[in-house]
Amino acid sequence: MRRIRVIGIGAGHPEYLTVQAIAALNEVDAFFVADKGDTKDDLVELRRHICERYITDPDYRFVELPDPVRGTGEYRGAVTQWHAERAALWGKAIAANLADGATGAFLAWGDPSLYDSTLRILDTILADDPNAFEYDVLPGITAISVLTARHRIVLNGIGEPVLITTGRRLLDEWPRTGTVVVMLDGACAFQQLDPSTQIWWGAYLGTEHELLVAGTVGEVGDRIARVRAEARADHGWIMDTYLLRSVGE
Q1: What are the pLDDT digits (tens) for 34-71?
Q2: CATH superfamily to which 143-245 belongs
Q3: Is the entire prediction scored with pTM above 0.85?
Q4: 98 and 65 in contact (C-beta within 8 Å)?
Q5: Pairing of strands 61-66, 179-183
Q6: CATH 3.40.190.10 correct for 3-138
């Protein structure tokens, strides 16, 4: 049977790879990479750089997968359809490019368990064809881990919970106590919170383009929104994460 390895490669820096991940890279015959267009070519190039750096026998190949465009309708329905289209493309690519007994891999930015669709898509393929392949998952360093390390802060308050959510849901889920980590916020929803709310923001974490800003929403909120917009315009894409706490937490 074909084997697929989903390898967490950390949040940007090539040295964030674990020893386990490096060993797994050296077992792979074909790397499957979603091609998200010219604006994200550097994400593909980083994956190539990681392979060139750590693989001792360069007898492997990259298979670039065209990425379907996500629809603009109702959010959950659009994402479900997008995943289904991805699953159809990936299933055909794996069957066409990976011989029986060979090993393929998907290199997941950060950790495969956190706001990444790879596992859901592979499970969708297996739901239609349980014998298509077997797969395992290797964890990676998350953007949250890098964010807290770079700002030198503890993730949680003493005895307090941590909520991980998206910008789209932030205002509905904003708690009275605890820490909130927000990922995927293109609208800078934090600007609508109490100005005294503490925020630690980071973008392109672990890369040469890393950006860090910290303070209260009132002090740095507008600055973060401006820096974020400028960086996205410069690079054509952005990955950012931020952590929020109410005053006194």
Answers
A1: 876 555 567 788 899 999 999 999 899 999 998 887 77
A2: Tetrapyrrole methylase, C-terminal domain (3.30.950.10)
A3: yes
A4: no
A5: unpaired
A6: no
